């Protein structure tokens, strides 16, 4: 019995010693995660960047003037591309590279793909969105630009005249999309003549011998309710020498200068001024078109009426819409240089009229003085008759 009772004491001692050893390993803190060995915790995972694209994938009938926006959370955007076919939309990142915003309108009736890449501590990420823009009820486009003849050289007074296929309600938005880029820049402004017709005129004549590029960045521009630009239009205009002709109806002379140098002096006969129609208009004219021959018929009269005439003239250069030309007149050579006997045109000898016809371009300047009939600003291309300060008031952007 005594032996059995002695045999239990060593066992109890071992248990106490083991408990003490375990207590020493735990440190007595009981704080989770403080134990070593097999019980250590794993650090939480860092999330990958989250990319958000607007318009979201699957969007349809997206307005072309809607801005494409791409953002990244938990990272920075590395690359963003927005494409419709082979056309890429320009955009820019913010200062943190967590946001990208498109800078130009979208093309109507087009399928777009947006691709984005981002990087962060959680690794790289990619995202894609595919959407379709709406088809506008009215597609706005440029149907005519004057001057627009390929290879044509024009004068220093030439305006840029743009006509659209449909009325423009938001003129400011469309005008903002019209760009004039000159090699020798000079101040100018647009003036809306009506809802479909707008004209650009410089404050002073174009500097001679240069190229001017006109671009209508119309694609996606909202011009009115359900009306969007459907394509851009670009034209390069060549400005030639500074041809300026000075006509005096009092001295019956015309002096022609090219880049400031006199190249021709012509005896002329102007309108006889017995009626308003037969009075040559004073002011700054531009050469508009030419013909050889041109048939001229008395305005407002029919055959048999007093004063009716129908004449065929050679080497005629139009300078207004009220029937004024510089042209040859062999029948009035005796009066040229001394009297005004025409129906309102500027007549010259056949040889000098031919020289003028052969050398001038659309948009060259013809200044006429000496009569009491003033050229109206909207008579032909009489736009220089309007002070520039008033001209610019016709702009949708000028205050």
From TrEMBL:
GO molecular function ontology, one term from the record: acyltransferase activity
Entries under Pfam families matching the protein: Big_10, YkuD
L,D-TPase catalytic domain residues: 243-369
Protein name, entry field: L,D-transpeptidase family protein
Keywords for this protein: Acyltransferase, Cell shape, Cell wall biogenesis/degradation, Peptidoglycan synthesis, Signal, Transferase
Biological process according to GO: cell wall organization; peptidoglycan-protein cross-linking; regulation of cell shape
Residue ranges with Gly residues bias: 27-39
